[in-house]
Every structure is written in structure tokens, then in C-alpha cells.
Amino acid sequence: MADRLVCRDCHRVQGAEIESQCEACGGTSLTEDWAGYVVIAHPEESEIAREMEVTEPGQYALKVR
Questions:
Q1: Following DSSP, what letter does each residue of 11-65 receive, concatenated?
Q2: At a CB cut-off of 8 Å and minimum separation 6, what does 50 contact?
Q3: pLDDT given for residue 2 in this prediction
Q4: What are 6-16's pLDDT values in tens digits?
Q5: How far apart are CA 59 and CA 40, in angstroms?
Q6: Ranges in the chain, pLDDT < 70
Q7: Which residues pair with 5 in a beta bridge?
């Protein structure tokens, strides 16, 4: 199993212990195929968060395949 999985729906980075469902949005489409990494601490003040449509603080992948 990979170190980290990413949700294809919300791009949230998941820990290795998550295997079937995203802990943020509940999506079930997780992948090991992703690139780029951003930590968003204050989504309400972040241009990147607005572009990515992120509303919750957390770790996100920039590109998910």
C-alpha cells in the first residue's frame, strides 16, 4: 500500500491507514497517482484554496490522475 492516497473528488491527502473512503468528503475513489502537494491553513484567505474550491484546512494534492 502507498504512503498516502488522495481522493479524486476533493484532492485531500489521506494517511496510509485510510483504504476505502475519504475522511473529508466521504468519496470512495482514492488513488496513489497524484503530484504536487499544498497545505492550506486558512482557506478563506487563500487564492489557491479559491482556485481549488477548498473550504477546509488540510493537505491537498495539486494534480490527481
A1: -BEE-TT--SS-TTT----EES-EEEEEEES-GGG-HHHHHHT--S-EEEEEEE-
A2: none
A3: 61
A4: 999 999 999 87
A5: 6
A6: 1-2
A7: 14
Q: What is the grid cell recorded at 64? A: 490527481
User: What are the cell numbers at 34?
Assistant: 497524484
- The total number of residues written for the chain in this structure: 65
CA atoms within 13 A on the CB side of 39: 1
pTM here is 0.87
d(CA 20, CA 39): 23
Which residue reads 473550504 in cell numbers? 55
